[in-house]
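Friendly challenge for the regulars: who can give me the structure tokens for this chain first? No prize, just bragging rights.
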Amino acid sequence: MGGVKGCGFIAAGGVFFFIFSLLMLFMMAGGGGSSATAGGLGLAAGSVPTAYLQWVKAAGAECPAVSAPLIAAQIEQESGWNPNARSPVGAEGIAQFMPGTWPNWGRDDDGTHNVSPLNPADAIMAMGRYDCAIAKQVAGVPGDAVANILAGYNAGPGAVLQYNGVPPYAETQGYVTSIEAAMKKYEAPLSSGPVGGGSAFGQAEIAAAEKYLGLPYVWGGGAPSGPTGGGFDCSGLVLYAVYQASGGKIDLPHSSEDMATMGTEIPRDQMQPGDAVVIQTEQPGDYSHVVLYIGGGQIVEAPHTGAFVRTAPLSEYNGMVQTVRRFG
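First reply, four minutes later:
Bragging rights claimed.
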């Protein structure tokens, strides 16, 4: 029941999003959205092609030193968002990984088993991991932390350590300057909390769930400690977020049916970011799907088989019976 049963459901408009999730793997371009990211920066609405949006958000949440605007600006500089870009020296793909470097960072992030620098999803996530590794290596270097990360990506972290900052290479200095300037068009200011306010507990829930944007939906996946089997289902994502936000004090069952009767029921017009919305998707009384409200009419969810952890409009579930539950 709950996450195991109901998260395989494709909601009203969900057929479109099932196809959309697959099309993202084939690099369609489009609009964008906005979401809080790691690194203290938000991502400006419409600034990133839709095909890559969830991966940019997820890569930007790999560690506190990295942000989605940083990832987006790097991609623009590296490849101009061209997933098939190749440089004269042999760098490949949207993130311009060299063949010798790629095996250290490339993983099957999109679940397609096509682990390649020419696979945008895997390449963007690899960029986030590599940026985070560089950030750790150069953490003790003085100066601007973002500049040092970028210099490490371009010239190698060893060069940053050798010169105790951005090395005196014209290419690297130009690379850093260009990306730091480009970041501004991808940035959006963050409020003191999620869109529409909310408690610190709700903020912590959202941060925990959004850490896994882009992770595959896995039937029965998810535990208090994180994904299982490589991903989450709907209730697995929610129970993980609530457990993390509560510091391990609230351990929900892996069932949206049970979640529909737990916590505090909240009137719809008093819903705040971090509240769980449990939805009857198949028949009366069958609360087979659960999502987390993040504010501004948006949710974060693990929707159904073939999709990924994503943000989406709550309006996808208009017309379905819903109950709002608050766990913290």
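Residues 1-5, 8-40, 190-197 have pLDDT under 50 and may be disordered. The chain is about 35% helix and 10% strand. Your move, everyone else.
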